[in-house]
Design goal:
Rossmann fold; 13 helices; 24% helix; 3 domains; 495 residues; disordered N terminus; Dihydrodipicolinate Reductase, domain 2; 6-stranded parallel β-sheet; 9-stranded mixed β-sheet; alpha/beta
Length: 495
């Protein structure tokens, strides 16, 4: 595949005057920590894929101490300033070409593209022995999350999901309070966000001319091809099912992490979703999801037991009812969302990122400090850099290592599945080990709404909502594990 059919060069695009990439000091691949010990004094050679949004923030967090040797983005208009600010990094449109040309000189990869390409970029990086930092949500599907979890274990690379709140004190305290038994058993959790803040509930737009600075085929990647429209990218891709995961993917990775970690969750056994009008292509304006998790084993001398628990999610401005005793006038929303843990002895409340945890009783716990704290001034990204430089045999895991972030992300994308399968009008039963719904039969059908239109005739609205009916099992299986568009493919799932 050509790098770009329009043959836009770095010189004419950025207005540079020379080969600025010359003179970079390249570390040999033998020092990659997945292949041999890497001294803390050494600098990582880092490539960043998807640099226009959060990728730029991640880049800025590591660039003061590490080498940024390559930058890749499908939209050189949106990313122009980032390319200009990093003239020593070799520019690419296609991450596959970048791996082919610079694979031996890259130690680690930051992935901050649209959700649907996270897995494929990160998976192939790991098979090359590269450490990976992947923006949230980790992946687009359950299968992809499971794959990245297993690949990270197989190749012994340092990993981190970009839910930066997991490195914060709020998550530490919430987990410690829960596991010290401060609120007793937890059988119900409610969580919410005020997102989306991008447009959702939209009909599929008509095609537009592709900007010269955008490679649309590379943006689509493994998804089904569709005509370009500016409603899809940049950033607004979050609301379109083929590319994003809506408010769940954007915010649940921040809000639900202390729930998943503090309650020692793994795979749900039941899922049910509802929403405002659900369209085939675009996420709804608001949704609610209920996930049920089975009882978990309790360690000897543990101060908390783990019974079956239901986790209820709200977004689009919806919030759970305020529990009895809620302080009058206190806003439930803290930094974009919140969580209520309903315990048998008390209720624990925290904001997005686990921020500012507190007990409804007003009591302030003095629980033991059991969670690892990052040193002052060390960011989520730099904790990952630290892990990259440690030997795999003695490495201290990051705060959102894929061994935890992978199963946790399955929780997030399971919410998407529950919403998109709500037309079955039943609680879905899930086998996490086999990644299958056990109560969707081969004959079950689900009706999907294609678009939402209406006209006013003689003063009355006339609704036009065309729909299609499809096999529910086939629909569910494709969402669990995507059928990638040729020639895109994932590595094989490790045993």
């Amino acid at each position: 595949m050509k790098e770009n059919s329009k043959q836009i060069t770095r010189r004419n695009f950025l207005g540079t005057t020379g080969a600025v990439a010359a003179g970079i000091t390249i570390l040999p691949s033998s020092v990659v920590s997945g292949m041999g010990h890497k001294a803390p004094s050494d600098k990582l050679n880092i490539a960043v894929v998807g640099i226009g949004g959060m990728g730029n923030s991640n880049l800025k967090a590591v660039s003061p101490t590490e080498n940024i040797v390559a930058l890749c983005d499908v939209d050189w208009g949106y990313s122009k300033k980032v390319f200009e600010a990093n003239p020593n990094a070799k520019p690419y449109w296609d991450w596959r070409k970048m791996y082919d040309e610079m694979g031996k000189s890259i130690d680690a990869v930051i992935v901050a593209t649209a959700d649907h390409t996270h897995a494929i970029i990160a998976a192939h990086a790991m098979t090359l022995g590269k450490h990976v930092y992947v923006q949230k949500p980790l992946t687009h599907t359950v299968y992809e999350s499971r794959l990245l979890t297993k690949l990270a274990d197989k190749y012994k690379v340092a990993t981190q999901m970009g839910n930066q709140g997991s490195s914060g004190e709020g998550v530490n305290l919430t987990v410690e309070w829960l596991q010290n038994g401060e609120i007793g058993e937890v059988r119900k959790v409610e969580a919410f966000t005020d997102r989306p803040i991008w447009p959702q509930g939209l009909n599929v737009p008509k095609g537009e001319w592709v900007p010269d600075t955008l490679n649309w085929d590379l943006f689509i990647g493994p998804a089904k091809m569709r005509p370009y429209n500016s409603l899809y990218t940049p950033w607004n891709w979050r609301g379109w099912w083929d590319f994003g995961t809506g408010a769940l993917g954007d915010m649940a990775c921040h809000i639900l992490h202390p729930v998943f970690k503090g309650l020692k969750l793994q795979y749900p056994i039941k899922a049910q979703g509802s929403s405002t009008l659900l369209l085939t292509d675009c996420a709804p304006n608001a949704q609610m999801v209920k996930l049920v998790y089975p009882a978990r084993p309790t360690a000897k001398k543990a101060k908390m037991t783990y019974p079956e628990v239901e986790v209820i999610w709200y977004d689009g401005g919806l919030q759970p009812p305020k529990p009895a005793g809620w302080p009058a006038g206190k806003n439930m929303n803290n930094a974009g969302g919140g969580v209520i843990f309903h315990g048998t002895k008390d209720k624990l409340i925290c904001g997005c990122y686990g921020r500012d945890p507190w007990l409804l009783s007003g009591r302030v716990p003095a629980s033991p400090k059991t969670e690892r704290r990052l040193p002052d001034g060390v960011s989520h990204e730099m904790d990952w850099v630290r892990a990259c430089k440690e030997s795999a045999d003695s490495r201290v895991k990051t705060k959102s290592d894929f061994s935890e972030a992978g199963p946790f992300n399955e929780m997030v994308v399971m919410g998407v599945l529950a919403v998109r399968l709500q037309g079955l009008n039943k609680e879905l039963e899930w086998n996490g080990n086999t990644m299958q719904f056990t109560n969707i039969s081969a004959d079950d059908k689900v009706r999907l709404t294609i678009s939402d239109n209406f006209t006013i005739i003689d003063g009355d609205p006339k609704f036009d909502r065309p729909n299609l009916t499809i096999n529910a099992q086939e629909f569910a299986n494709e969402m669990i594990k995507h059928n990638y568009r040729a020639p895109w493919s994932l590595p094989e799932m490790p045993a």
